[in-house]
Amino acid sequence: MIVAGFGFRREATLASLRDALAKAGRAQAIATVTEKAVTEVFRAFAEETNLPVTQVSPDKLPEKETATHSHHSENRYRTGSVAEAVALAAAGPGARLIAPRVVSSDRMATCALAETNSRGDMS
Predict the structure, then answer these.
(1) Burial level of 121, CB count in 10 A (0-12/13-18/19+)?
(2) Is the residue at 84 inside a domain?
């Protein structure tokens, strides 16, 4: 299972999320931080993609090692990349990053891909 993890700014649009996913690659599920999962733009994106959504608690992010580092992510969520940490957390134990974060053209959204080690349930 390939999970696309998302980080995005408050000003992000549906086009921002679409572009970030297009740059990252194909996914079978999407995920973001709990507080962002309930936003109108992410709910519309989830409906449009018709992919399962996993909400990741912010307290799970610092325990995930990320390939890239953003000062904003470090300051707000104590992780180098929200998109990468969310993808890894949603993909479950033993997941591996298969595409580090990419940034949408408007710089409002990031997306990273992680793959589960097994066909088991996502956590």
Answers:
(1) exposed
(2) yes
d(CA 32, CA 39): 11
How far apart are the C-alpha atoms of 84 and 100, rounded to whole Å?
6
In a domain, 121, yes or no: no
Q: Which residues lie below 8 Å from residue 119, measured CB to CB, with a gap of 6+?
A: 1
Domain span at residue 80 reads 2-115
- Structural domain contains residue 53: yes
- Tens-level pLDDT at each residue, the chain (123 residues): 999 999 999 999 999 999 999 999 999 999 999 999 999 999 999 999 999 999 999 999 888 888 887 888 877 877 879 999 999 999 999 999 999 999 999 999 999 999 987 554 443
CATH number, domain at 107?
Answer: 3.30.420.180
